[in-house]
Design goal:
The protein is an alpha+beta fold. It has 4 helices and 6 strands; from the N terminus they run βαβαααββββ. Strands 2-1-3-4 form a 4-stranded mixed sheet. β5 and β6 form a beta hairpin. About 30% of the residues are buried. The mean pLDDT is about 95.
Length: about 140
């Protein structure tokens, strides 16, 4: 059985739903509450590379110092954006899931299902929305 790593924020509904889907699928799970245990710069760079995602796409705006730090400035380099995420981990969007099948920012939460060995076929989110998964990749 593969191990699933979840970079998680328990205050985030999307992250909680992703965690619940992983648990319901019976996967072996490592949960990293990334606000308590932020990734190292090297780990963050590895996550970005694995997702083939530029740092700007991983930035979270809502509920963060994004605007105060002027992070919407297109002149900021990737290094500067990573520096901001290292200084303020809340800027790292979540949940990020790492499995043997890939690494993905799971927004919406059901984006995790193709990454799992035994994904649930039906799941009810906290808000009552029902997710149906037929096993095909998204």
């Amino acid at each position: 059985m593969m191990t699933v790593t979840l970079y998680h924020n328990p205050d985030c509904g999307t992250s909680r739903n992703t965690l619940a889907m992983i648990r319901a699928s019976g996967e072996e799970l490592q949960v990293i509450e990334y606000l308590k245990t932020p990734p190292t710069r090297e780990a963050l760079l590895e996550l970005l590379q694995a997702m083939a995602m530029p740092p700007r796409e991983l930035l979270r705006r809502k509920g963060t110092p994004y605007d105060e730090l002027g992070l919407d400035d297109p002149a900021l380099s990737d290094e500067q954006l990573i520096d901001a995420m290292m200084a303020h981990p809340i800027l790292i969007n979540r949940p990020i899931v790492v499995t043997g099948k890939g690494t993905k920012l799971c927004r919406p939460s059901e984006a995790v299902l193709p990454l799992l060995d035994n994904p649930v076929s039906t799941f009810t989110k906290e808000d009552g929305d029902v997710v149906h998964f037929d096993g095909s990749a998204s």
